[in-house]
Amino acid sequence: MKNFCAVLVGLCAVISSVYAFDRAQAEEMAKEILTICKDSEGGSDDDFNTLIKFDYPTTSVGNCMVACAHEKIGLFNDGKFMKDNFITFAKMATNDDPKYVDLAIEIANKCDNIEGPRCEQAINFNKCLEAEAKAKNIKKLDIL
Q1: Who's near 10: CB < 8 A, 6+ residues apart?
Q2: What is the pLDDT of residues 68-92, one digit of tens each?
């Protein structure tokens, strides 16, 4: 799960870099997205705090908050992984470094076919990202 929040903060950092925000503003943007998702999914403060601490959710609503965040940042649309968006974010976050872009493409390809109900899909996708990043010895935020 650490990779989900890292990805969320990383994507917010990439987005914010276009607007000249700093890391603290990117983290604030991630909190805002999770707040929106908490409200729209009916999450609790515990669900929110769990996600902010980079832990896996312990409730089904928490899982749905992750799905919502995926949708808000453009990783998923109608249950489909938006691989091109993921790769675009990786390119932006790494200044188009071929080494990391290639790793991002490999990870995206491995995690491209995660299916299931929306909220379970989100968690299984995060677990795939985490496992693939670990297998490739990628530390948090190396790519995103």
Answers
A1: 26, 89, 93, 141, 143, 144
A2: 999 998 999 999 999 999 898 888 7
Residue of 122, 20, 131 lying closest to 72 (CA atoms): 122
C-alpha 89/C-alpha 104 separation (Å) is: 9
| Domain chopping of the chain, boundaries | 2-135
Q: How far apart are CA 61 and CA 7, in angstroms?
A: 20
DSSP E strands in the chain: the ranges are 76-77, 80-81
Question: Which residues neighbour 101 within 8 Å (Cβ) at sequence distance 6 or greater?
Answer: 87, 90, 91, 94
For the chain, what's the residue count? Answer: 144
- Classify domain 2-135 at the CATH topology level: Recoverin; domain 1 (1.10.238)
Interatomic CA distance for residues 106 and 33, integer angstroms: 27
